[in-house]
């Protein structure tokens, strides 16, 4: 079994006439939390969408668990055990929290068909999901919506969880809850890839880090090494952690 659950090598992505990714090399080690950092427009979201097959790589290779997934369709990639929470979170505002969860569980037509031990575990990670179970998801706060989005992604067992900016717009107290939840998920053996702008969040949770700029990964290594090196942070991100 390879130590890297996900690997991108030399990935190029074009969006219409624009050449966005210019040969991305990225590894996500199994069982670890990998942070993908970089300035606005560096290509982080495009990288996540390319992994999920939402954009098609024009060159290069994406492998998951050793299998080449570069040409697979998004539902096939999800079916292998990859969950993706996009920046807009993909929840249905007019439906209740419960209905959002039922829709996320592919095999389920009602709550009774969702694994109840798993649901209890999700409630323990994100109490707001239980508290607002029968409320329309659109009425939740930003943090609660984000928690619902992550809950939907883990309603079935997943090997890899990919989340675009989970801390965006959240209050510090909510961010702390989110950090606890990700730490627990990781302790359950879930491999996680996060895009982050919140450097503190990245520093507290990341095992591994990759930094993008202009459509390529310009730095990869341990989060701690980057967190301890202010000069490197300045040169890569234009700020100190
Ligand atoms: N649909 C699109 N059409 C044209 N250009 C796009 C499209 N989506 C993204 N881009 C461009 O691709 C580049 C990378 O965008 P991407 O969203 O991947 O960056 P990012 O690192 O996630 O940045 P941010 O943190 O601002 O979301 C940017 O220059 C952006 O303008």
UniProtKB/TrEMBL annotation:
Pfam families: ABC_tran. CDD domains: ABC_TM1139_LivF_branched (cd03224). It comes from Ramlibacter ginsenosidimutans. Residues 6-239 form the ABC transporter domain. The keyword Oxidoreductase does not apply. This is ABC transporter ATP-binding protein. The keyword Cell membrane applies. One of its GO terms (molecular function) is branched-chain amino acid transmembrane transporter activity. Belongs to the ABC transporter superfamily. The lineage of its organism: Bacteria, Pseudomonadati, Pseudomonadota, Betaproteobacteria, Burkholderiales.
């Amino acid at each position: 079994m390879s130590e890297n659950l996900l690997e991108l090598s030399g990935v190029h992505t074009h969006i219409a006439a624009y050449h966005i990714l210019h040969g991305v090399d990225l590894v996500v080690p199994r069982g670890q939390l990998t942070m993908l950092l970089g300035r606005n427009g560096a290509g982080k979201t495009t990288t996540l969408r390319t992994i999920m097959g939402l954009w098609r790589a024009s060159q290069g290779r994406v492998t998951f668990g050793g299998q080449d997934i570069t040409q697979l369709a998004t539902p096939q990639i999800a079916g292998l055990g990859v969950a993706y929470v996009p920046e807009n979170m993909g929840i249905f505002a007019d439906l209740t929290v419960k209905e959002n969860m039922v829709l996320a569980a592919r095999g389920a037509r009602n709550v009774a068909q969702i694994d109840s031990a798993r649901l209890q575990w999700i409630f323990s990670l994100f109490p707001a999901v239980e508290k607002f179970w029968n409320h329309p998801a659109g009425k939740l706060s930003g943090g609660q919506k984000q928690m619902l989005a992550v809950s939907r992604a883990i309603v079935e067992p997943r090997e890899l969880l990919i989340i675009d900016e989970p801390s965006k717009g959240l209050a510090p107290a909510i961010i702390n809850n989110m950090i606890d939840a990700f730490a627990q998920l990781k302790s359950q053996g879930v491999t996680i890839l996060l895009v982050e702008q919140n450097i503190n969040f990245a520093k507290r949770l990341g095992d591994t880090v990759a930094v993008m700029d202009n459509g390529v990964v310009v730095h990869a290594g341990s989060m701690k090494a980057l967190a301890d090196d202010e000069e490197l942070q300045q040169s890569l991100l234009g700020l100190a952690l």
